[in-house]
């Protein structure tokens, strides 16, 4: 028994050793300015980032991240790191986003690149490997999950709703070697499935048989008109008839006004257009289903998940109202490490809510104190107006 325990412990140790954190960044100081590169792509006015923990936080130093600082700007900033491939291993992409400005329209996503990225020329059309994260604009509040596959970008076919409040939230994408994936927000799974099923990477496995055609005698009508049903003889009644109670006005002049006609009213005996009743169709065969055949253009790909080279992360986005803070970047093949980072970040969210609540309460108290003073000022102005009002003088009789 003891040997089994030791073998299991050894297995866990080997597994831990084999796991790797490829890149992690939490922006403890200003060194990011020498490691991240602004794009200089022509034709756009790019905004600048600054290091900030925002207006409310749990820890003023530990919660610092890259914050957008200019309204109505494109942003294009990237960081390269040691290249890696996720062949045969899970890929975890994780980062936090805090829209403390209560964003109305703007991106909060990241783009993942290979080493061919020209950082000085990064722009919206720069080829990327993965695009992942929240995007908000008006009623649209979604999480993008876009993969590049054979030179084309493929969007997820599912709708994943992102968080739309003012606090820090952690976004995690897990891609596994069995071609499955998971999307988590704040360490809670919000979507999962198979890559092949939820993206259009490959042609469909089956297609409609081009040789098959619906038989000419195939009847898809569930009901038909009763051939035995006939229209009643008294059915035909006019929809409108002259008002029997109407009388010609006394001042009506036939020569001037023309021949008088009584106004029309709805006929209470009108039954509408007649139609025979419906009965079950004895020849009904149900909807015709087009037969399918194997798609000759379909070929399975067990390596859809694989990224041959991941080398850079970029913030390439547009924001109407600035103030978003990006932080806690993590690229790893260790799902448990990512979960641990996520659990630790929950304290940040709790601290932010506590500080924001205190700020809101202080603001409410301030408004309460200012409101009576404003009311008193208004009363004083009314009294002064009454005192200053001129008194009318009357001549004595």
Structure commentary:
Its main location: endoplasmic reticulum. Disulfide bonds join 105-137. Residues 206-250, 346-372 have a biased composition (Basic and acidic residues). This protein has 397 residues and is an alpha+beta fold. The chain has a domain at 18-205 and 304-357: Jelly Rolls. Helix content is 21%, strand content 31%. The protein has five helices and 22 strands. It has helices spanning 2-18, 32-35, 195-198, 254-257, 335-388; strands at residues 21-25, 36-38, 49-52, 65-68, 73-84, 91-99, 105-107, 110-113, 130-137, 140-149, 152-155, 168-175, 180-185, 188-194, 206-208, 223-225, 240-242, 264-266, 278-280, 292-294, 310-319, 324-332. Strands 1, 3, 4, 6, 12, 13, 14 and 22 form an eight-stranded antiparallel β-sheet that branches. A hairpin with a 2-residue loop joins β10 (140-149) and β11 (152-155). The longest helix has 54 residues, at 335-388. The chain starts with a helix and ends in a 9-residue tail after the last helix. The relative contact order is 0.22.
Number of helices: 5
Order of helices and strands: HEHEEEEEEEEEEEEEHEEEHEEEEEH
Determine Rg (CA atoms, Å).
36 Å
Largest sheet properties: 8 strands, antiparallel
Q: Report strand %.
A: 25-35%
Instruction: Tell me the span between the first and last alpha carbons.
Output: 125 Å
Which CATH class of the domain at 18-205 and 304-357 is shown? Mainly Beta
Given helix and strand content, the structural type is: alpha+beta
Under CATH, the topology of the domain at 18-205 and 304-357 is which?
Jelly Rolls
| Average of pLDDT | 90
Helix-residue proportion = 10-25%
Give the low-pLDDT segments: 1-16, 391-397
Total beta strand runs: 22
Biased composition (Basic and acidic residues): 206-250, 346-372
Binding site for an alpha-D-glucoside: 109, 111, 128, 135, 316
Disulfide bonds: 105-137
GO molecular function: calcium ion binding; carbohydrate binding; unfolded protein binding
